[in-house]
From TrEMBL:
Lineage summary: Eukaryota, Metazoa, Chordata, Craniata, Vertebrata
GO molecular function: integrin binding
SUPFAM superfamilies per record: Integrin alpha N-terminal domain (SSF69318)
FG-GAP repeat extents: 104-163
Provenance organism: Engystomops pustulosus (Tungara frog)
Record's keyword terms, sorted: Cell adhesion, Glycoprotein, Integrin, Receptor, Repeat, Signal
Membrane topology according to the record: Single-pass type I membrane protein
Protein family per UniProt: Belongs to the integrin alpha chain family.
Pfam families in the cross-refs: FG-GAP
Protein name: Uncharacterized protein
Keyword Glycoprotein: yes
GO BP field: cell adhesion mediated by integrin; cell-cell adhesion; cell-matrix adhesion; integrin-mediated signaling pathway
Subcellular location: Membrane
Major localization listed first in the record, in broad terms: membrane
Domain of life: Eukaryota
Length: 163
């Protein structure tokens, strides 16, 4: 018979496939952990898992394929790509819990086209150069239209709805 209830936790780890840096920390995307459902690692000097996909059965989500940090007056945010989430891809918005070494999910944005790999790349920009990141670029390299392929989605990051 088959073994019951086992999954790969860290055996398929791809820690560092994506990374985001600040002055005092490194955030690593790790899409291979937990049977490819993925997660992120916060490395303050030693490796520590700080967020993983809340849906245990969501294998092959690839959470952490892309990761980017955004800091503004509301705090520190991590934008995490999951290009295979429900076949259309997703970018999850995590907010650092003040005083704790963990992140909580506060929002997400779903892709619109199956197989587009929405969330495979994420970039942030300070459009008005005020020192606060307010623009998020989300790549979908396999997005297809009849005369072109690949697409970059532009989202504003604000206080009302995160993206």
């Amino acid at each position: 018979g088959l073994a019951q209830g086992s999954t790969f936790t860290r055996e398929m780890s791809l820690a560092g496939l994506s990374a985001a840096l600040t002055q005092d920390r490194v955030i690593l995307g790790d899409p291979g952990i937990f049977s490819w459902s993925g997660g992120i690692l916060d490395v303050p000097g030693q490796e520590e898992l700080v967020y993983k996909s809340p849906e245990e059965e969501n294998y092959y989500r690839y959470l952490g394929y892309a990761v980017e940090l955004l800091h503004n007056e509301m705090g520190l945010f991590s934008l995490v790509g999951s290009p295979r989430y429900q076949y259309v891809g997703c970018v999850t918005v995590l907010k650092e819990v003040p005083g704790e070494r963990r992140w909580e999910e506060i929002d997400f944005v779903l892709g619109k086209q199956i197989g587009s790999y929405y969330g495979a790349e994420i970039a942030v920009s300070d459009l008005d150069q005020d020192g606060v990141s307010d623009l998020v670029l989300i790549g979908a390299p396999y997005h297809y239209e009849p005369k072109w392929s690949g697409q970059v989605f532009v989202c504003r990051f604000n206080k009302v709805r995160y993206m």
